[in-house]
Amino acid sequence: MSEAQVEKHAFQTEAKQLLKLMIHSLYSNKEIFLRELISNASDAIDKLRFKAIEVPELLGDDTDYHIDVTFDKDAKTLTISDNGIGMSREEVINNLGTIAKSGTAEFLANLSGDQAKDSQLIGQFGVGFYSAFMVADQVEVRTLGAGSEEGVVWRSSGEDDYELESADGLSRGTQVILHLQDDALEFAEDFRLRSVVRKYSDHIGVPVRMLKQALPPGDEEEDADSEAEPELEAVNSAQALWTRSRSEVEEAEYKEFYKHVSHDFDDPLDWSHNRVEGKLEYTSLLYIPKRAPFDLYNREAPRGLKLYVQRVFIMDDAEQFLPLYLRFIKGVVDSNDLPLNVSREILQQDDRVDSIRNALTKRVLTMLDNMAKKEPEQYQAFWDEFGEVLKEGAGEDFTNREALAKLLRFATTTSSKTDKDKKRVSLDDYIGRKPEDQDCIYYICAETYETAARSPHLEVFKERDVEVLLMFDRIDEWLMSMLTEYEGLKFVDVMRADVTLPGEAKTDDADDSGDEDKQEEDEHPLIERIEKVLGEKVEGVRTSKRLTTSPACLVLAEHAMGAQMRRIMEASGQQMPESKPYFEFNPTHPLLEKLDQEPDEDRFGELVEILFDQASLAEGSTLGDAAGYVDRMNRLLLDLMKN
Ligand code: ADP
């Protein structure tokens, strides 16, 4: 030890918060700290192995990679040490004193305070190293970076700050020494420790070693106290999981490996493990998580697979092997063809990578399709978490559009009452039960489920039992602008001016422009009077075939931008060209019948304005002149009260 000074450093605020949560809400399954620490040690060895391809000197004499787990029952300590890449002083500060993930502060602010729920969330956030504080009241990290001269000791009790000190005489790698809490002394028992180590490290490609025990396991109380042979033996099989054949790997092992690669505390929803031989040789192990990560929509969030080349770890988050819309997939790809010195830049423009990406994309879509067919409940759980992201794919991945469209799920006008806003109906379901003479798929887009489901545009569809897809995700209108048909059936927006109902569609088949002709025949006397009032606000005024109970609604010209998309574009600061709706009224509605009798043009105008504003409100729009609407309504109410 040198006589270096001890420096005190404060934890970054987020790190401090997370530590607190760790200690207070994740206590139910303490043993996972070992998985996290072994996982870190294994990553550190992977990183060194990779770096040593270019700089072999980093290894020195110490080329026999291993992770050792040892304990001292009297001193109540447990030590996990590796001869991996180690950390410099700066790395220690950055890695163990801060949390670099962007969005962490918001994530923490959004936790509910409900421990059970929060612990799940923290789990998928991936807290790694800090889980040591679930079992230890003091943690000491002694580390020497590969190729570095100066060793560093980090020490903390997991509260506000940590100490740093320089240290001589360390060997390359990292030692994490846990001073166990009194209620965690089971982790200083050989038998218990062995079973946990085996459970969490069997799939790791490096030997995890423990001291050989003189006594057979069983009376473990005695065991740990006795003088053990100072000889180490591997406790795990030390063969990287994906290199084993599928039939040899047990379900529990796949699940453990998932936790290692994903830093998720939960089990995966499903996985697919494949070896491909032929022109390209690679192995992939792809996992679908149960829950969406908090930063699913953060464009900068790391994503992608762990890339290995011929078993050697190359990089985390190799995003080139899957399209952006599959960014939630975790796992490993191990290629036999790529060079060991492959860089992110090379990956971006390599044909082999493109072929692997295409194949892996299909693999994931097939996995989802199988799940949808065989485990519909499970698929539904997937859809609830990741459906919106998959919609990105259906919009942008032209090659796989049919396969992706098959995976989409929607709420519809005939969704059962209990399901209400749940998206449960596939396009195949829809087509399977539509009337024969219906040659399109009807849909409506709105801001919320309620606005969509209660839209006046649906009245005649409901009356005639024609099912309509209800769309209310932000992405939907964009999606529908990309996805124009499915299985040869066009998607038809019921809010558009030119909608025809099943029976009518047939007779109108002959002329696509039939709409305008029909309009010319539309000679209701109210049309001209209403047009005079609404003037520039509308594209036109017409009688409606779609309304049965509402007095009026607004409809869009065929190619006009929808209200939802317009709101999104405007919210992002873009100026949108004006697009005017048609005002459609229901001539048989008592309000319009009365209106037709109204001799006073001022009062007529006032009532029409109100109907127009109400039609805007019904489609979820805000009123340009809300105060004007309120004034008019109040005048009307006053009138009513006078009588
Ligand atoms: P994660 O592993 O999810 O990045 P951790 O909190 O577990 O988060 O670890 C933070 C960082 O500390 C790691 O990314 C790694 O850079 C570093 N680290 C942790 N343990 C070790 C170790 N045994 N050897 C080298 N670096 C480590």
Number of strands: 22
State the CATH superfamily name of the largest domain: Histidine kinase-like ATPase, C-terminal domain
Molecular shape: elongated
Q: In which range does the helix fraction lie?
A: 25-40%
CATH level-1 class of the largest domain: Alpha Beta
- Largest sheet at a glance? 9 strands, mixed
State the end-to-end CA separation: 97 Å
Q: Nearest-angstrom radius of gyration?
A: 32 Å
The protein's oligomeric status is single chain
Beta percentage is 15-25%
Number of helices: 23
* Whole-number mean pLDDT: 87
Report the CATH topology name of the largest domain. Heat Shock Protein 90
Task: Tell me about this structure.
The protein is elongated. The strands form four sheets. It has a nine-stranded mixed sheet, with helices on one face. A five-stranded mixed sheet has the order 10-11-14-12-13, with helices on both faces. It has a five-stranded mixed sheet with strand order 15-17-16-19-18. The chain folds into three domains: 214 residues, Histidine kinase-like ATPase, C-terminal domain (Heat Shock Protein 90); 136 residues, Ribosomal Protein S5, domain 2 (2-Layer Sandwich), CATH 3.30.230.80; 131 residues, Heat shock protein 90, C-terminal domain (Four Helix Bundle (Hemerythrin (Met), subunit A), Up-down Bundle), CATH 1.20.120. It is built from 23 helices and 22 strands. A hairpin with a 2-residue loop joins strand 18 and strand 19. About 2% of the residues have low confidence. Helix 1 crosses helix 5, helix 10 packs antiparallel against helix 11 and helix 11 runs antiparallel to helix 12. The chain is of the alpha+beta class. It binds adenosine-5'-diphosphate (ADP).
